[in-house]
Amino acid sequence: MFLDNNATRIRREILVRIAKLCFEGRLIESVDRLPVDMRPKNDSPERCCVHKERAVIKYRVMATLGFGTEDETDELKRLSEYAGEALDRKAVSSSVLTILDEACSACVHSRYFITNACRGCFARPCALNCPKKCISFDDGQAHIKHDACVNCGRCMKVCPYHAIIHIPIPCEEECPVGAIYKDDTGKETINQDTCITCGKCMMACPFGAIMEISQMVDVITSLRSASHTVAMIAPSIVGQFACSLENIVGALKALGFDYVAEVAAGADITATEESQEFVDRMRNGHPFMTTSCCTAYTEAVAKHLPELAPFVSTTRTPMHYTAELASARFPDAVRIFIGPCAAKRKEALGDPLVDYVLTFEELGSMFVAGDVDVADSTPQPPDIDATVAGRGFPVSGGVARAVQLVMDQDCDVSIRPEFVNGITKQELKRLKDYTSACPNCNLVEVMSCEGGCVSGTGVIGNPKSAARKVLELGAHKGK
Question: 238 near 385, Cβ under 8 Å?
Answer without folding.
Answer: no
